[in-house]
Amino acid sequence: MGSEALSVPEILALILGRGIKGESVMMTSNKLLSRFGNLKGVANASVEELTQMRGIGPAKAAQIKAAIELSKRLEADTGEKPKPVLKSPEDVVAVMRSKLKGKKKEHFWVICLDTRNRLINWKPVSIGSLDTSIVHPREVFKEAVSSSAASVIFVHNHPSGDPEPSKEDVELTKRLVKAGEIVGIDVLDHIIVCDKSYLSLKAKSLL
Predict the structure, then answer these.
(1) Using an 8 Å Cβ cutoff, are 112 and 161 in contact?
(2) Are the beta carbons of 149 and 120 closer than 8 angstroms?
(3) What does the pLDDT look like over 173-183, one tens digit per residue?
(4) Is the pTM of this model over 0.70?
C-alpha cells in the first residue's frame, strides 16, 4: 500500500512518530485535526498554537511545520512558469530594458537560448566602453557553452540615448559571430538598447 492510500490522520501520525503515555499517536493526530478544524487549519497554526495541544512539543510542532513547508515548495516548483520565447528584437527588449535603463556605463549581456528560442539564462559579461579587450569571445561563449545554449543574443546599452552602433560595436559583433561559428553556437542578433529606443544589428544587416 502506497502513501497515497493513507488518510490525513495517518499521514499526520507518521510525521509525529509516536504518541505519549496513555494516548496513541493516532489519537493525537485526530485531536490535532479536530482542534484546528482540518488540515488547512493545522497548516495555518503557529508553532505556539500547536504546542498548546497535549502530546505536541516544540520538536513535533517543528516537524509538522517543516512537512507543510516542503509541500508548499514542491507545489511552487511544479507550478514554475514556462520560460519566455525570444523570437524578435521586441521580445528581447521587453525582458532586458529594465536591467539596462538608466545605466551610466555600457553593460554587455549574453542571452542564452535553447533550440526553440526559449530563454535558458542571461548574464552580464562586461561593464564599460565596448572593445575587444573588454568583451572577449572566450568569456562570452564560456557562459553559452556551460548553459548548453543552441544560440545566443547579445545586448548592450548606449547611455547617450542614441542606439546607432559604433564602428567598434559592428567589429565586435562580427568577431563574436565568427567565434560562434567555431564553437557551433548561432549568434541570432546583437541589440543596442536605450531608455526610449533600440536597434537590431541583424535588422540593419550588420550581423
Answers:
(1) no
(2) yes
(3) 999 999 999 99
(4) no
